Amino acid sequence: MKGPSAAARARIPLVFLLVAALNGCATPRKPLPPAGEKPAVAPAEDSSAAGQPAAEPTGNGHEEAVPAAETDQPVTLDVETAVALALRHSPELAALRAAVCVAIEERRAALALRDPELRFSYGQGGTDTERTGIFPVGVDRGVGLPPLVTGYVTNTLEAATSSDHGYEVALRLFPPNPFVMRAAAMSGDATVRAAAATLRAAEWRIASDVKRLFNEMQWAERELVTIRTRLKLSRELYEETKIQASPAKRAKQTTDVATAARRYHGVLRRLADREGDVETAREAIASYVGMRAADLRIRHREAVPAAIDIEKIDMERLERFALSRRADIEALRAQEMAARGRLAEVRSQAIPWFAYLQGSLSEATTEDETDLRWRAADGSRYADPSPPTTFDTETSVEWRLDARVQIPLFSLPAALRQRRATEYGQYAVQVAEVEKSVVLQVRNAVDALRSAQQNMTRYAADADPLVAEMKELLRQFTDEQGKVLVPFLEDAMRLREELIRAEDSALETAFAYREAVIRLEEAIGGSLEEFLRALK
Questions:
Q1: What is the largest CA-CA distance in the chain?
Q2: Taking a C-beta distance cutoff of 8 angstroms, is the pair 163, 125 a contact?
């Protein structure tokens, strides 16, 4: 069965969601029942009579029925246990729980900082120097006179060595743009809330469907009881009609017998239809709870919900309650907030920000080693007339701080901003329209509940006196032992059938009222008891 999505609205704190990512997303967890529902398990029935094993304790204060697939034994479920099992075995909910975990991880990835870079370099080199010089060759002319230059000779200066080595260490950081990060955090948080709210909406919808199926199945099974009784009476009337027939009244005999047979077959067809309805509802419930329909036994609620004074309910407060508790509306609002965050993120990217910050330390050392000797053209060696330097070392240390700022002039087209703005406006319009639809749905559900309550009250007031009169007439058609007098057999059969119809009508109005309560609770996204407690 299909119904509007509805769930209790509850904001999930970010810390809780992050813990869920660490603890709950890696391993499957049992789903929690919707707000206002407790997965209580009905007490075990008589095992000897029903072939039903007692439920095993789970260690959490509740007993939980085990699906038949695990025990190969029939399992009896009440509505609360069926809801809990449906929430556990639903493939749709399993996918939505995984979607919550994905949203949490996507938020974490969106806020993750870029890893820093550590740079290191080292270099070493050397130089061997040879110099060529032209020196004069002269004759000594005596003391006090300069030498007489007679020619020039080319000599080479050798063994002049220079070596250098150094290193550099740099740490490069990529500081996040705080404006972009704030917008990404808002978008990520809203996306996680939207996924969680979508999950709660699906849980509430499935819980409402299971409740509705239980109500329909209970009504059909109750009607089966009266139909079987009516079938028995119709069969008895048919048999007695044949016995009382006389040859003198053959024409009337044929009409009476045919009428009785037609009535019997009509009840028989109705019995088959209702049995089909019961099996259809049983199969639908079995598909929700993950069991075979043949292994499923149903335990119903006997009591009809207490009548609610609809006229005293403040419709404005009820509508506000629905708008605040419906998880599908909460999901849309969160999606709207996520779209707003994505729009802010795009706009924030237009703000110039540091591409990186880098701090570096470098050290360089240069060593000059000289052992100067001149070599003449003929290969002879002699001392350099200038004084030699044997060793020279120079060391330099440098600190640097570099920064680069990126200015997005061409990488942020206006079309992207317009797309995000349109997306945000789309969700805003959708939220407004859904809120209008929810208000109308609540009003229609209240009207249906008011009508069902009036029908139940009116039937009790009008039908009870008639039922009492029919019972009194039926006593007049029976003897002291309670056996129907032969002349009044057909009248007594008809009275009994009318009494059964009256019982059917009373049951139908009661179950229609219960259906209206389920419909209203689905519309407001919470239980009526919770709403009434909030009014106090």
A1: 188
A2: yes
pTM of the model: 0.69
Q: Are 453 and 511 in contact (CB under 8 A)?
A: no
Residue reference for tokens 């996680």: 192
Q: Where are the alpha helices (DSSP H) in 245-296?
A: 250-289
CA distance 495 to 230: 11
Return the DSSP state at 344.
H
Express each pLDDT in 495-504 by its tens digit: 777 788 888 8
Q: In this predicted structure, what is the pLDDT of residue 294? A: 86
Q: 3-class DSSP state for residue 172?
A: strand
Comparison of pLDDT for 378 and 147, the residue scoring more = 147
Beta strands in 300-458 (DSSP E): 353-375, 381-382, 391-406
Q: How far apart are CA 322 and CA 525, in angstroms?
A: 6
Q: In 133-249, where does DSSP find H-type helix?
A: 178-244
Sign of CA pseudo-dihedral 256, 261, 264, 266: negative
Does 142 or 176 have the greater pLDDT score? Answer: 176
Q: What is the pLDDT of residue 373?
A: 57
Q: Which amino acid is it at 87?
A: L
In whole angstroms, what is the distance from residue 52 CA to residue 32 CA?
Answer: 26
**Residue ranges in 24-90 assigned as alpha helix (H):** 47-50, 68-71, 79-89
Q: Per-residue pLDDT for 204 more than 90? A: yes
- d(C-alpha 123, C-alpha 144), whole Å: 55
Q: Are strands 75-77 and 296-298 parallel, antiparallel or unpaired?
A: parallel
Given pLDDT bands bounded at 50, 70 and 90, which one contains residue 64?
very low
328/199 Cα distance (integer angstroms):
9
